[in-house]
């Protein structure tokens, strides 16, 4: 592998960016592609597929057979609210292979006893996210029902281009949320990215079932990046 290719991969890793490399017919890895800058044709399709699945694979070019490798940052799930849904979601996310952290300034809820082994921050989201900003490979799930806690991270997630942004609450609640986000300067198209009510529509009733719906929605959003897909419509 050429030195400049290795440097590009390392820079992407540090900055939590996704890149793919192409090994040509001659066996030399000499091209680096970024997720949001793909060529047309079979190569672009192969690269897009690799970015969605995280799996390498062959591609047939005019010059011969080549091979695509992909390097993705670990997927993060940031949950706002140390609530019952979060308690159920944390072990599910771990099983699915996703890093999960919970942020809640309410110290009565954000306790180590309730979230054993979970990356838990009993602080305001604006303070925590200043230290570890959101990015395109992060999902944001706002679960407190409290605008004072939820609105800032929702706004930050839209600005950062998080691949998933979801918020708990009824449609009536979301109408008011939309008004507040518009006042913060977000456009209607940006706000339309929010999965609200959060999660897949599976008829979830309990906190654990809602957690399943949320995780399923997150997985679907991640694996369908760049593809048209229906919005979540759940809890």
UniProtKB/TrEMBL annotation:
<dbReference type="InterPro" id="IPR052698">
    <property type="entry name" value="MoCofactor_Util/Proc"/>
</dbReference>
<protein>
    <submittedName>
        <fullName>Xanthine dehydrogenase accessory factor</fullName>
    </submittedName>
</protein>
<dbReference type="InterPro" id="IPR027051">
    <property type="entry name" value="XdhC_Rossmann_dom"/>
</dbReference>
<dbReference type="Pfam" id="PF13478">
    <property type="entry name" value="XdhC_C"/>
</dbReference>
<feature type="domain" description="XdhC Rossmann">
    <location>
        <begin position="77"/>
        <end position="218"/>
    </location>
</feature>
């Amino acid at each position: 592998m050429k030195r400049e290719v290795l440097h590009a991969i390392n820079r992407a890793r540090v900055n939590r960016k996704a890149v793919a490399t192409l090994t040509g017919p001659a066996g030399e890895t000499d091209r680096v592609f970024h997720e949001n800058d793909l060529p047309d044709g079979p190569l672009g399709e192969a690269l897009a597929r690799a970015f969605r699945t995280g799996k390498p694979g062959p591609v047939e070019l005019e010059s011969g057979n080549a091979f695509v490798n992909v390097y993705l940052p670990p997927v993060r799930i940031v949950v706002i609210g140390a609530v019952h849904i979060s308690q159920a979601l944390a072990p599910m996310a771990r099983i699915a292979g996703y890093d999960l952290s919970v942020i809640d300034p309410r110290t009565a809820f954000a306790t180590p006893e309730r979230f054993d082994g979970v990356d838990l921050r009993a602080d305001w989201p604006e303070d925590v996210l200043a230290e570890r900003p959101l990015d395109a490979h992060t999902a944001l799930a706002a679960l407190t029902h409290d605008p004072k806690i939820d609105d800032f991270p929702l706004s930050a997630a839209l600005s950062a281009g998080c691949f998933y942004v979801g918020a708990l609450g009824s449609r009536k609640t979301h109408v008011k949320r939309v008004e507040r986000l518009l006042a913060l300067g977000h456009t209607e198209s940006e706000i339309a990215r929010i999965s609200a009510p959060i999660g897949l529509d599976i008829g979830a009733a309990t906190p654990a079932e809602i957690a399943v719906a949320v995780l399923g929605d997150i997985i679907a959003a991640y694996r369908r990046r760049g593809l048209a897909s229906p919005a979540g419509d759940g809890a």
